[in-house]
Design a protein that fits this description.
The chain is mostly beta strands. It contains one helix and eleven strands.
Amino acid sequence: MSDAPHDPDDPDDTADYAVLDPADVDPEPFPESGLPHRKLTRALGCTDLRVNAVTLDPGAATAPHAHGRQEELYVALDGGTVVVDGTAHDVPAGGLVRLGPDPVRSVRNDADEPRRWLMVGAPPVGEVTDFGEYVVPEE
């Protein structure tokens, strides 16, 4: 065990914990929607799950998608709307949504202020760059 936090700049770091402000990770655009998100997996030193954060401006939504073999947990930090297989569900601030690999899901912001989501996926299938075998259904 390590008694120091994870150093994301050291590829050989094996620390057992990390403390991170998501704002310290530069946002990147989602491949399909172009919405900015923050890939937190490497910065946290995660090995058994994937972690992303997204802030949705009013009217914005992530692209509907599924994950071939990955379960996800969404945390609605400010509340928001999750759409699962075409059905919208209101999620309160701090609310949780668990999603198996198959349902097609997206989050959207129907409010007048930005909404933040934390998204955790496991197992860590695929690569950090492909969002865990991110699958966009054909229309």
